[in-house]
Amino acid sequence: MSLLDITDLTVTYSTDSGTVHAVNDVSFSIDEGVNYGLAGESGSGKSTLAEAVLGLLPGNGSVESGSIEFNGRDLTGLSERERRDVLWEDIAYIPQSAMDSLDPVMSTGAQIRQAIQTHRNVTDDKARARVRELFEIVGLDPDRIDDYPHEFSGGMRQRVTIAMALALEPDLIIADEPTTGLDVIVQDKIIDKILEIQDRMDSSLLLITHEIGVIAETCDELSILYGGKAMEQGSVDNVLVNPTNPYTMGLKNSFPEIEEGDQDPVSIPGSPPNLSEEPSACVFKDRCPFATEECEASHPDLVDLPNRNHRSACHHVTKAAQMRRDATDPETWGIPDSHDESDRGEVLLETDGLEKYYEQSQPLLDKLRGNDPNYVRAVDGVSLRVRRSEILGIAGESGCGKSTLGETIALLKQPTGGEFVFDGEPYEHYADGNMREFRRKVQIIFQDPFDSLNPRQTVRQLVGEPLTIHDYRTEERERAIVETLEKVGLTPAKKFLDQYPHQLSGGQRQRVAVAKALVLDPDFLICDEPASMLDVSLKVNLLNLLRELADTEDIGIVYISHDLASLVQVSDRLAIMYLGRVIEEGDVESIAAEPKHPYTTSLLAAAPEKDPTVDRDRVLLDGEPPDPVSLPSGCVFAPRCPKAEDACRESEPGLDTVRDGDHRAACYFPDGETPDADGLADDRSDSTYGDPEFSPPASGDSASD
Amino acid sequence: MSEFQRFLAKRLAISILLTLVAVSVIFVVLRLLPGSPFESLVTAGNLSQQQITEIRAMYGLDQPMWRQYLSYLQSILLFQFGYSILRSQPVWGVLAPRLVNTLILLVPALVTTAVLSSLLGMYVGWNRGSKLEKLSIIATTFLRSTPVFITGILFVIVFAYNLELVPAFGMRSISASPEGYVETFASLDFLHHYILPFTVSVLYYSGDFLLLARNGVVEKRGSEFLKLHRAKGLSEMQQLARAGRNSMLPILTYFALRLGMIFQGLILLEVVFGWPGIGRELVLAIQQQDYPLVQAAVFIMALAVIVANLVADVLYAYFDPTVSTSGGGAA
């Protein structure tokens, strides 16, 4: 008997504007000890499904029909009291945003203890001992159980919630996007931890995520959800290697991977369906390039594919092989394939040893004594060059100073040292009364499309505002706005002009933000994690848009992100930052293929792999970046570096330590420094998926956490 | 010195500075007022010029301003409030009983309303959209926005005159002449007089706490950590308790500030109910330009607000672990 059996589950939300059919007739079952993945874009109903299982649906949501059987017991029929007994004792939950999901005024240990003591009658001492044990299991210092959530970093907080989920050794753990919002490196560590613990405890896992790569690496079986319908289910090996549903193909193709350097990820155009009515046609038909009349008529049932653990809901399953081939071609999806790389133009922005230090506040006494204050070196001597039509990607963990760097080169923050030249003029020129000109030429796009647009302005006002401020094209305002909206793909522009941000989807909002930046015809664009809040297919859309802008509009772009995979897709050159310094810089191809700095290697290795048949070597970095106030002497990465030797701790390597054409790295013992380049080439041709070997000699040692 | 101690020291220093500023402002403002305490005596023709000069010299009012200021500072900071000019008795002897009368009325009222209306506010915030929520908001907002003397008079008309349940004003029956605080306040007669003004002030303060608590809980209700608490299997009431605990900080701050302001009394209420409190006394003293009495009263009020602020800060640091950076001082 399986552990969790969901049959024909239908969940609806009642809202002011009618009923929303969030989950429609979804069935699947999870066996004991199995990791089950639920994938899909936002709005596909995957979180609703999890909430239905946990009984955490918000007040306006209700289970219309179907059953959720857990160990033979129907959870939908339980009373409030009976359900509380099942929760945590049998089914535990790892929430989405570790940042907000811990009670801020209760110590972490007390929160876990509360979970234990709600269900079991144990003494405080015993519960404390158990909490210490749990902290140890998830890799936290057991002496910190009395610390409050704000004293932990994001990754550590997620470990606390994992520890909490394990407290009573439940049969099933439901993890809702456990790694979204975390850095690649932290994400990798968390996934590794979940898997390791799973092995030990032998519980089942229901993992919900939009990252196909994460599922490919952790799960045995999965369901792909779209518009509240299960589109494809089965074992991960079958579904992800040989998808038979156009949606799965689209989702898989849009997931950017580092190794596909030349192959553009293909996005799924359009946006998720309106769920205000029960689906009568195939939910995916509007976005599906293979849709026919048959698809209009009815939503296909899930069909068992012969002799494998694999089911797909598509009228055209029989043509799967043909569709798979076509789906990799962007033109199938109606996306013009414009990839004529224009030449890179003149140097637009150049910095030399750019610095942004923040003075630490110090006690009055020290100030009187004239002691030098401590500085946080957010940006510490960064030298960059960006040409026209070039996208420079800046990558690094959170806290490495990449966002500060972005704001400093946008002159939103004053540099505290170093040279800054934009368009042939130095910083002093702009600081001295020419800032308005600079502000027109340089635009910045921020991370969060939900907060960066004024909710009380229409699209017309939002996009038109910069025109008014800079008195630019005011006589043909309307035309400028429409042109720009069309440029960013909001067509027909007329339809959007009078809409407010809340009426737009996440992807459309981010496009409005881009349009707002582009309406002034800038020369230079700084994008600070513009895609981190977006679904994969929207993310790819945005990346392709930026690439196109760089190619056709001749503008220089700096793209800041922690997601190396998308950086590799979009950029021409990459700069890897660690603690305010650039530690490696060069052409994307050469960094992705032969990273020199061990830090780059581990960043590259941390990106998940969407192909379940590929075994990835995890390079788990120890610890977290050191305190930026009291940096170690020598190479700043040395404390976490698997290869560090005495020389690294004595003096700091400059960026020119390793040099290979345009590719530079600050490391004394670079990776992949093998004189016989032939051997390397052989290695690469061996692996079918173009997967270069990223295995530094010491990866095994560092894997211990 | 731990982080918390440093924090405390800083706040203390600021409070002392504020007290000095407040004391100086009182001094300056009083001297800027036209006239003097003796004006009325002079116009009544009861005093000769020579007598006036003598009295002025006795009170030190003939000395230069800076010297007056210095001796004023010295005395007031040592809580030496001097003699009331018009009543010819020590200021403290006039103020202390009035202050006690005010506090005995308002402190229990404030505590009661803070506890009851906050709990009610949390409950209605949790059950958002219920009839009880709407009713309680309308009722308390009405009570809060109506001047307290209107509510007071209404209560007097209904409960004292029509129903004749309680006396209309005063602190005790005219015939009673108790000795000492215990005998005064621990008597049925006092309670009988006490209940009406007490009720009115409870209702008057209830709106603020109710709204603060409700808004806090409403804001916290959809948060992720409550979802996790719910997933852990906490009961509805336990979840509400966590939401309440998380929205307690503004209530706490507001309570402390209100507590400080209580030292000023509720003048209108004291007038309506004939309650011999500090508010009425202050009005009288200002009218008569009784310098020492006004100075002392205002000083006590300012000090109370400043101390309450300090307490609010410390409580905040104690109840919100994120306030002090090291997390020190947290329970």
UniProtKB/TrEMBL annotation, chain A:
One matching Pfam family: oligo_HPY
> Which ranges carry the ABC transporter domain?
4-252, 349-604
Gene Ontology cellular component annotations, sorted alphabetically: plasma membrane
Its Enzyme Commission number?
Answer: 7.2.2.11
Q: How does it sit in the membrane?
A: Peripheral membrane protein
What name does the UniProt record give this protein?
Nickel import system ATP-binding protein NikD
Identify the domain of life: Archaea
- A Gene Ontology biological process annotation? peptide transport
Give the span(s) annotated as Disordered. 602-627, 646-705
Q: Which reaction does it catalyse?
A: Ni(2+)(out) + ATP + H2O = Ni(2+)(in) + ADP + phosphate + H(+)
GO terms for MF: ABC-type nickel transporter activity; ATP binding; ATP hydrolysis activity
Entry keyword Nucleotide-binding: yes
Q: Which UniProt keywords apply?
A: ATP-binding, Cell membrane, Ion transport, Membrane, Nucleotide-binding, Translocase, Transport
Q: How does it assemble?
A: The complex is composed of two ATP-binding proteins (NikD and NikE), two transmembrane proteins (NikB and NikC) and a solute-binding protein (NikA).
* PANTHER family per record: NICKEL ABC TRANSPORTER, ATP-BINDING PROTEIN (PTHR43297:SF13), OLIGOPEPTIDE TRANSPORT ATP-BINDING PROTEIN APPD (PTHR43297)
The compartments listed are: Cell membrane
Record field: transmembrane = none
The residue ranges flagged as biased composition, category Basic and acidic residues, are 608-621, 646-665
InterPro entries, alphabetically? AAA+_ATPase (IPR003593), ABC_Ni/Peptide_Import (IPR050388), ABC_transporter-like_ATP-bd (IPR003439), ABC_transporter-like_CS (IPR017871), Oligopep_ABC_C (IPR013563), P-loop_NTPase (IPR027417)
> Which taxonomic lineage is given here?
Archaea, Methanobacteriati, Methanobacteriota, Stenosarchaea group, Halobacteria
- UniProt keyword S-adenosyl-L-methionine present: no
Please give the chief subcellular localization of this protein: membrane
Automatic annotation (TrEMBL), chain B:
Q: What is this protein called?
A: ABC transporter permease
Q: Where in the cell is it found?
A: Cell membrane
Q: Where is the ABC transmembrane type-1 domain?
A: 99-312
| One Gene Ontology term from the biological process aspect of the record | transmembrane transport
Keyword Membrane assigned: yes
Q: Give the CC-aspect GO terms.
A: plasma membrane
Q: How does it sit in the membrane?
A: Multi-pass membrane protein
Read off the Pfam families from this record: BPD_transp_1, BPD_transp_1_N
Q: Which UniProt keywords apply?
A: Cell membrane, Membrane, Transmembrane, Transmembrane helix, Transport
Q: Record's superkingdom?
A: Archaea
The reply to whether Thylakoid figures as a keyword in the UniProt entry is no
Sequence intervals crossing the membrane: 12-33, 98-126, 146-163, 251-273, 293-319
SUPFAM superfamilies documented for this protein: MetI-like
Q: What is its main location?
A: membrane
Family assignment from sequence similarity: Belongs to the binding-protein-dependent transport system permease family.
Q: Which InterPro entries match?
A: BPD_transp_1_N (IPR045621), MetI-like (IPR000515), MetI-like_sf (IPR035906)
Q: Which organism is it from?
A: Haloferax marisrubri
